């Protein structure tokens, strides 16, 4: 059964990966290149960071970025499916809704919680800390995100047995509390001195919405594949039975 | 399905997976995560540049 979950997860990852790969090719790649060039044009007076020579051509970057996007979705699909296999009995809801709860938890853990401190950076961003420090912060925030997800699902479970709507409110409490505390306490680590604020907001919204879309497609595809397999195995039993009885 | 617990699922996984298979799977997943999210080698960094920015990957 574990293998069935993993196979559906990878298939769902391929579906999400095709969508995200197209998004990378037609939206994210051109926009990232544009922002990169826009800053080169008036950033020559100080020779730091993004003025370094590129190790690869722009075409290579574009192709590898699309491939990385596809691989990223397949990777998330596999991890999502394994987590769904082990955690399904503990998740609220039946069938598809438990898959969407887990996808929400995944988005909160891998992306949303880390972004409260380390928001998505547009090309040319200036970072306060070195890569090693940010890496350590990121790993810590993923752990925090997992903890917040568990707390949210746990408080939903405790309250929802008495009142379902109150359970939903209870589930948002740990999430909102974390968001408020982290966004007020955390220092500004990423800044974009050479880009308009609206442009940076749009870029960050693009990153957030596209990652959320990957998780939504994964949850929808996994539960669709599961339903489809359940009905097709029910249909296969008929002919097999007939063959075994006639022979 | 009903009344199943997380512990049941772990037992079921133990029954079909050898420790070697589990370790191989984890290593493979960790490898993909490392390359996509953490690898800072200039060649890899520049080639995945647009993806890492657009996916909001922190370690960039």
UniProtKB/TrEMBL annotation, chain B:
Regions crossing the membrane: 20-39
Per the UniProt record, the lineage of the source organism begins with: Archaea, Methanobacteriati, Methanobacteriota, Stenosarchaea group, Halobacteria
- Which keywords does the record carry? Membrane, Transmembrane, Transmembrane helix
The identity of this protein, by name, is Cobalt transporter subunit CbtB
Species of the source = Natronococcus amylolyticus DSM 10524
Pfam families in UniProt? CbtB (PF09489)
Report the superkingdom from the record: Archaea
């Amino acid at each position: 059964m574990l293998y069935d979950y993993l196979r559906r997860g990878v298939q769902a990852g391929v579906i999400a990966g095709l969508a995200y790969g197209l998004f990378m090719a037609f939206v994210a790649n051109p926009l990232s290149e544009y922002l990169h060039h826009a800053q080169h044009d008036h950033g020559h007076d100080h020779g730091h960071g993004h003025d370094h020579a590129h190790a690869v051509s722009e075409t290579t970057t574009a192709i590898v970025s699309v491939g990385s996007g596809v691989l990223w979705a397949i990777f998330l699909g596999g991890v999502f499916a394994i987590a769904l296999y082990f955690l399904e009995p503990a998740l609220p809801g039946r069938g598809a809704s438990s898959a969407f709860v887990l996808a929400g938890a995944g988005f909160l853990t891998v992306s949303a919680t880390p972004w409260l401190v380390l928001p998505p950076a547009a090309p040319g961003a200036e970072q306060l800390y070195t890569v090693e420090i940010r890496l350590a912060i990121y790993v810590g925030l993923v752990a925090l995100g997992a903890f917040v997800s568990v707390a949210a699902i746990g408080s939903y479970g405790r309250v929802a047995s008495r009142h379902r709507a109150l359970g939903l409110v209870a589930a948002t409490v740990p999430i909102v509390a974390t968001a408020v505390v982290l966004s007020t306490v955390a220092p500004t680590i990423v800044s974009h001195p050479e880009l308009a604020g609206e442009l940076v907001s749009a870029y960050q919204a693009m990153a957030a919405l596209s990652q959320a879309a990957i998780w939504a497609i994964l949850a929808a595809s996994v539960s669709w594949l599961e339903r489809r397999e359940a009905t097709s195995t029910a249909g296969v039993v008929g002919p097999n039975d007939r063959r075994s009885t006639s022979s | 399905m009903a009344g199943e617990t997380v512990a049941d699922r772990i037992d079921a996984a133990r029954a079909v997976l050898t420790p070697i298979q589990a370790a191989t799977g984890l290593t493979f997943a960790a490898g993909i995560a490392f390359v996509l999210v953490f690898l800072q080698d200039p060649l890899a960094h520049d080639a995945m540049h647009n993806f890492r920015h657009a996916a909001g990957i922190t370690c960039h």
